Amino acid sequence: MTSGKRVYRSDLRAEQARGTRRQIVAAAGELFTERGYAATTIDAIAERAGVSRKTVFTAVGGKPVLIKLAYDWAVVGDDEEIPLVERERIQRMRAQTDPLKVIEAYSRHYAEVVVRVAPLYLALRNAADADDEARELFAEVQAERMRGMGMFAEQLGRIGGLRAGLSVRRATDLLFFHIDPAHYELLVLTRGWSIGAFREWFLTSVKLHLLGVADTR
């Protein structure tokens, strides 16, 4: 029989370990964004997180694991082991049958996510040019993004939301293009657009290219 005290101690240790993991991944994400992937060392991550080098490896892993976790957590907004597609917000979007409302809901969602994701995405993209592990990870991230946009395009096609002549395959490509954080980098980080203006551009452009609607207001 397991005592209540033993269960409590086990839960406490698990929560402490999770907290350490969060701390390390957060530190790694900050450094990858500030310094780039190649220039960020495990020692620097350990120092920023306030742990030992050994703890970084035992609690999380090496740099490829760290940047992928930081990226994945940025996408969903937390470290819960719930796939994005199973999240309540995404489920509500997938249950929607009005194409315009689907795209409006997604534009709000994307405008929130890209702020968190773009710095890590750009760090990984830049590292992919010179680092084999980063290149493999970037390819994995791109494949995940493409699959997600494929599901989005299929939903729009199923509910009659694609303009005449636009295939699901081509809609997938257009969505994949629009969610590239490079647009956020150029318009918000470089040109100084507000996130509201960026979201409006995203919404208007996706409505035009997928629904064939320039503006419904």
Q: How many individual helices?
A: 10
Number of strands: 0
How much helix, percentage-wise, in residues? over 70%
User: What is Rg?
Assistant: 20 Å
Rounded to the nearest angstrom, the distance between the terminal CA atoms is 66 Å
CATH topology of the largest domain: Tetracycline Repressor, domain 2
CATH class of the largest domain equals Mainly Alpha
Strand portion: under 5%
Arithmetic mean pLDDT: 92
Which class of secondary structure composition applies to the elements? mainly alpha
Give the second-level CATH assignment, the architecture of the largest domain: Orthogonal Bundle
Gross morphology: globular
Order of helices and strands: HHHHHHHHHH
* Number of structural units classed as domains: 2
Residue runs with pLDDT of under 50 for 5 or more positions: none
Quick one: biggest sheet? Answer: none
